Structures are given as structure tokens and as C-alpha cells.
Amino acid sequence: MTPLRQRMLHDMEIRNLADNTQKSYLIQVASFTRHFHRSPELLGPDEIRAWLIHLREERKLAPGSLGPTIGALRFLYRVTLKRDWSDEDFPLPKKPVRLPVILSFDEVTTFFDAIPSLKHRAILMTAYAAGLRVSEVVHLKVTDIDSKRMVIRVRQGKGRKDRYVMLSPRLLEVLRTYWQDAHPREWLFPGNIPGQPISRDAVGLACQLARKRSGIQKPITPHSLRHAFATHLLETGTDVRRIQLLMGHRSLSTTSKYLRIATSTVCATASPFDLLPHPAPIPFPPPASEYF
Questions:
Q1: Where are the domains of the chain?
Q2: Given Cys at both, which of 69, 89, 125, 202 links 85, Cβ 3.0 to 4.6 Å?
């Protein structure tokens, strides 16, 4: 490990960046330096722009996929190398705004019915019932399920923050049935490697197999269940601020995006067209036979 890489790693550890973020940043910087065959200390804004163009035009990366690259280079040059560079030196492409595809209540039910494994069903039901990220679901411990207070403790979610979410009575029944069958000890959903939780990839694969079995044509990922959780809460009258706390969003604007896809609050709103007086009926021309 080079001294510069070690310094960057120490800087990220001091700031308590998530382990996945640290790994991603190191990979991004390593790719950047290998492309130019020089130390990043010898590279500057011109090389950064050239690298981003390369990623967009040669590797065909979407604008949204460049975020980790920008974040890694900003951290390296501004924090570790202490370069006084502006945001313009790290041009971030504007991402197209796309709304997530939301499953209906019936589709969620059909999806769950298509999961043959009790363990996988319990995992994905937990993701939906509590609105958890897949990384949060797989890292749940048995002790995080508090049936006395009817809450689930989410340890070190995104942004390294703990939070509590509701424990659905119906979900508690599912988890008790699963526990009686599997008897997990530490991790609620253990993986194939002893002492380790189930992997996110394994949950994603179970999700895709269930989607195929269900016959649902919409794309479904574990995160789709989190989107459905927030949208369904909003459609049934839950306050946006409360949803923000349950989702663990830092900003209310992140939660507010669900206002654009909640049909009961958007599409169910009466159009002003319906308030206009009914106009006189439009006279239809007589049938063609009457012209002869």
C-alpha cells in the first residue's frame, strides 16, 4: 500500500465513513491513476475532466453512476491532498429524474405468495413491513426485534445512524414462525458463511426468482419494497415527516419525492376541468347516408 493510499484510508477512517464507501473510494481512485499511469499527486482538473469523459463516452456509464467517482476524487484532492479546488473542478453531470415503479397492495401480496423459502419470505416481508434498505435487513440481529415495545432497532443505517422502526404485529408472527424453524442465534438472517449474515446478493437473487414465479411484469428489487412501503404509507394518510423518520432520510426533500407517485394524493386530486359548467352538447353530423 502506497503512503498516499494509506493517508486517504486514515482520513476516511477518522471521518467514520462507511466501510463500503471506503472500499468504493479506493477502487475509484485506483482506476483513475491506472488510466493515466501516474500518481494522483501529479494529476489535476484537466485529467479529472478527461477521465469523466472517458467514463461517459468509452465505458458508457450513466450520469448517475459517476457519483462515486466524483465523491472519491473530491475526497482525495480536497481532504487528503488539501487542494483548494472548486466544485467546477469536479463536474458532476445532471442526472435524469426518474420516478420508481411502485407495486400495488395486490402485487405485493402476489409477490410474497411466490416466495417458496420461509427464510427469504421473512427477509423480504421485513424489508416491506419496516421500509428497510437491503443492507439494513441483512444486518439485523435477533436482539434487534423488540416485541415488548413493538419496534425494530436498525443499527448503523445509512449515514451511520441508529433508528427505530415499527414492528408490525403481522410481521412479528412471520418472524416467530421463521425463528421456530431456523433458530438463528446472532444474526436474524445468517448466511452460508459461519458467523456472517446473508449477503445482499443472495437476497437480490431470491427477489428476482420470486418475481419470475409471481408473473409480475414490473421490475422488483429489495429496494422496490422500500419504495412501496413509503408510498403506501403516504397513500393511507401518514404524515411525510413521520415517513422521513421511519425511512431514515436525512432530508425531508428526499421523502417528499414520494408525493409525486402517491396516487391517492396526486392522481386522485380532482382536475379543475371537472369544476367547469357542462357545455352544450356538440352536435354530431348526420350519417353519411342522409347526404344522398
A1: 3-89, 105-260
A2: 89
Is 158 annotated as catalytic? yes
Annotation: CATH topology of 105-260: hpI Integrase; Chain A (1.10.443)
Architecture of the domain made up of 3-89: Orthogonal Bundle (1.10)
Write the burial class of residue 212 (CB in 10 Å: 0-12 exposed, 13-18 middle, 19+ buried): exposed
The phi, psi pair for 5, rounded to 5°, reads -60, -40
Active site residue 5: no
Residue 195 has φ and ψ, to the nearest 5°, of 80, 0
**Annotation marks residue 249 as catalytic:** yes
From 120, 226, 227, 232, the catalytic residue: 226
257 catalytic per annotation: no
Q: Among 133, 163, 211, 232, which one carries the catalytic annotation?
A: 133
Catalytic site residue from 56, 158, 200, 257: 158
pLDDT tens per residue across all 292 residues of the chain: 789 999 999 999 999 888 889 999 999 999 999 999 999 999 999 999 999 999 988 888 888 788 899 999 999 999 999 999 988 888 877 766 677 788 999 999 999 999 999 999 999 999 999 999 999 999 999 999 999 999 999 987 666 778 889 999 999 999 999 999 999 999 999 999 999 999 999 999 999 999 999 999 999 999 999 999 988 888 888 877 888 888 887 777 666 676 666 665 555 555 676 667 776 676 666 665 554 4
